[in-house]
Amino acid sequence: MENEKKISVAIDGPSGAGKSTIARRTARTLGLVYVDTGAIYRTVGYHAYRSGIDPTDAASVAALLPELRISMDYGEDGLQRMYRNDEDVTEQIRLPEISMFTSHVSALPEVRAFLLEMQRRMAWEYSVVMDGRDIGTVVLPDADVKIFLTASAEDRARRRYKELMERGTPKGFDELLQEIEQRDYNDSHRAASPLRPAEGAVRLDTTGNTFEQSLQQVLAIIKERTGL
Ligand code: DC
After folding, report:
1. DSSP reduced 3-state for 36
2. What is the CA radius of gyration of the chain?
3. CA separation (Å) from 129 to 27, 49, 102?
């Protein structure tokens, strides 16, 4: 049967710009499926971590992929649950050591190729808001709407600082700022799918915005382009 036309919204940008919160709320508001591709990469990072290998060793990571089945579903709260083979790893993939492993494995072309089909299939089956680093450039170059969401490094460090304080695990502002600048550099200088705005992407700088202001701006961009 002919697949009816699905809407796809690609939201890319650096860590800490508020992408996932904005993408999730946007999807909920418009009745679309939210796909958090960072969580998919994190599941590969977790698998590498549990396998005890060096995450920078491309051959060892690639050797793990054929035995890895990744799946996901959505809880009533809209939370995207992730499964490594049949194990629910939704919480584990958020641990700081997994962020580190994931940043290494996601730089490998073998891993990016392994996940490409899975991400494209989601957009083929559902109308989606998909967030990540290379959605508009590589995964869905024909997305109906592409948004590149940024904020100044200081603003992102401030948000992270507040978040960690509230969680009871504070870290110094200068250290956080340095980490963010380092991650930005890594993400935009890696050879495989470096972070950059896609052709035709609307750049949205959320520096100084409240969450609600950013959300309304994203909704307005989508409405203008799709009528949704
Ligand atoms: O958005 P996040 O922090 O959950 O992403 C986790 C890691 O995965 C981060 O190091 C960037 C990487 N990633 C990627 O390379 N490509 C994507 N489409 C999504 C995430």
Report:
1. strand
2. 17
3. 6, 29, 22
Q: Does residue 15 register a pLDDT over 80? A: yes
Out of 128, 133, 185, mutate this one to test ligand 1's pocket (max ligand atoms within 8 Å of CB): namely: 133
pTM of the model: 0.93
Distance 23 CA to ligand 1 centre (A): 14
Backbone angles phi, psi at 221, to 5 degrees: -65, -45
CB 170 within 8 A of CB 164: yes
Which pLDDT value is given to residue 213?
A: 97
Q: Is 127 helix (H, G, I), strand (E, B) or coil?
A: coil
Cα 103 to Cα 124: distance, rounded to the nearest angstrom: 27
Q: Scanning the structure block, which residue is given the tokens 């495989």?
A: 192
**Structure confidence by residue, pLDDT tens digits, 153-201:** 999 999 989 988 998 989 999 999 998 898 888 888 889 988 999 999 9
Q: How far apart are CA 109 and CA 149, in angstroms?
A: 24
Exposed / middle / buried, residue 85 (Cβ in 10 Å: 0-12, 13-18, 19+): exposed
